[in-house]
Design brief:
The chain has about 90 residues and is mainly alpha-helical. The protein has one domain. It is about 75% helix and about 0% strand. It contains 4 helices and no strands. Helix 1 packs antiparallel against helix 4 and helix 3 packs antiparallel against helix 4. The N and C termini lie close together (about 10 Å). It binds zinc ion (ZN). Zinc ion binds next to helix 1 and helix 3.
């Protein structure tokens, strides 16, 4: 196994996570979206998380507004950390 790809680190995933909900709500400008898309293309854990987050946001939108509950956000962040850790083992 190669050491961590410099293009893809835990930090990138976690930083990206902070912006995923904005990304989903289309609150980011085009360059920021491209950044996120480029990372997600190369990062399986983030693909899974984006998918999960999208589904959850859709679900929440049907309930009320577009806020992702904070507890869910925390949980998803844990999930990302876990996925990334497994991948690098
Ligand atoms: Zn990632």
């Amino acid at each position: 196994m190669k050491p961590t790809d410099p293009h893809h680190s835990h930090e990138n995933c976690l930083a990206l996570f902070e912006r995923l909900s904005e990304y989903i709500d289309r609150e980011l400008d085009a360059p920021a979206c491209k950044d996120i898309e480029a990372h997600i293309k190369a990062c399986k854990p983030c693909q899974v998380c984006l998918d999960t987050l999208k589904k959850t946001v859709d679900f929440c939108k049907n309930l009320e507004r577009h806020q992702v509950p904070e507890t869910f956000s925390m949980k998803l962040k844990d999930t990302i950390s876990e996925l990334v850790r497994k991948k690098s083992d």
